[in-house]
Write a structure and sequence with these properties.
alpha+beta, 45% strand
């Protein structure tokens, strides 16, 4: 067994893998990652996606999704946390 077989994935590798899995499964393209943190069950990434593109772009509807990973980086699931209009600020 090589030394790389047990190497832990880097944060960048975890995020790349989570993005790829989410986009393939959900059919949505991630515009940005707004959070990434270790949890007691693995990892959680918050992804911002355009759910409804409109013209002008300022009227587009976006959503924040929580993407969950197992401790080894395997995809565990996702859920939508909120929907909002582009440019809408958190209160």
């Amino acid at each position: 067994m090589s030394g790389d077989a047990r190497r832990k994935p880097t944060t960048a590798e975890l995020i790349r893998g989570a993005r790829q899995e989410f986009e393939e499964i959900a059919g949505l393209e991630i515009e940005s990652v707004s959070a990434f943190a270790k949890t007691e069950h693995g990892w959680e990434m918050h992804a911002e996606v355009v759910e409804l593109a409109r013209i002008p772009d300022t009227t587009s509807v976006l959503a924040t999704y929580a993407v969950r990973l197992e401790p080894d980086g395997a995809f565990a699931g996702y859920e939508r946390l909120r929907r909002y209009g582009r440019g809408q600020l958190d209160r």
